[in-house]
Specification:
Helix content is 8%, strand content 41%. By secondary structure, the protein is mainly beta. Strand 6 and strand 7 form a beta hairpin.
Length: 98
């Protein structure tokens, strides 16, 4: 799992049937305390948490677990937004996003 910022929306004219009604976003991994980018943006499906551009989110980057959360073992999904982060504490230091 990783902490990321939602940096954009993704639209597609055609989607796999298992993704019908699901939102897709670009997420960029960040350092949870400094918000500095830690890598390139990637495509992630919203797992029903209601994320949007600017949200700081918890991202699951493992296909089997992502499909299990979606309840569809055949979904072509690897990366899933599984939570919106309000606060983070690392080594006694905290950061609030809400």
């Amino acid at each position: 799992m990783l902490v990321a910022e939602v940096v954009g929306n993704v639209w597609g004219q055609f989607k796999h049937p298992s993704l019908k009604g699901k939102q897709m976003f670009l997420v960029r991994p960040i350092d949870p305390l400094t918000e500095e980018p830690l890598g390139d943006a990637m495509l992630a499906v919203d797992g029903g948490v209601g994320a949007g551009p600017g949200s700081i989110v918890l991202v699951l980057d493992e296909g089997g677990s992502a499909r299990q959360i979606l309840g569809d073992g055949q979904a072509p999904v690897r990366t899933l937004i599984c939570g919106i982060i309000d606060k983070v504490f690392v080594n006694g230091k905290g950061k609030s996003y809400a």
